[in-house]
Amino acid sequence: MSLQESEVRKVAGLANLILSDEEVASFGEDLNAIVTYIEQLQEVDVSGVLPVVGVSGIETCSRTDEPQPALPREQILAMAPQANEQAFLVPKAVNR
After folding, report:
1. Which CATH number covers residue 37?
2. What's the rounded Cα separation, in Å, for the pair 91 and 20?
3. Checking CA distances to 12, which of 20, 29, 71, 91 falls within 20 to 30 Å?
4. What SS3 string covers 15-71?
5. CA distances for 76 relative to 42, 66, 84, 90, 91, angstroms
């Protein structure tokens, strides 16, 4: 499978990237190499192989989740550069 230029531009748009024509060609080659590799992986016979959830053999040791005292909302919001009555105010980062 080979990605078309329109598909490369769509992927770039999903990642909020604006690419020049040269970059579209370069990224297209990179994405096509990735797709080719994935296609090769799909051809590997894994019948009889058990699924692996973790490879280290080490279990995650976590403390129990217990509620801890917290600062009052008003005090936390007072420390923010900008806030309204219930949330931090941040500049818009994505144009969607």
Report:
1. 1.10.20
2. 27
3. 91
4. CCCCCCHHHHHHHHHHHHHHHHHHHHHHCCCCCCCCCCCCCCCCCCCCCCCCCCCCC
5. 50, 21, 11, 15, 19
Q: Per-residue pLDDT tens for 51-67?
A: 887 777 777 778 888 99
Q: Which of 7-11, 20-24, 47-51 has the lowest mean pLDDT?
A: 47-51
Residue 95 lies in a domain: no
Q: What is the pTM of this model?
A: 0.53
What's the structural domain count of the chain?
1
Cα–Cα distance between 38 and 26 in angstroms, integer?
19
**Across-strand partners of 88?**
83
**Is 64 a member of any domain?**
no
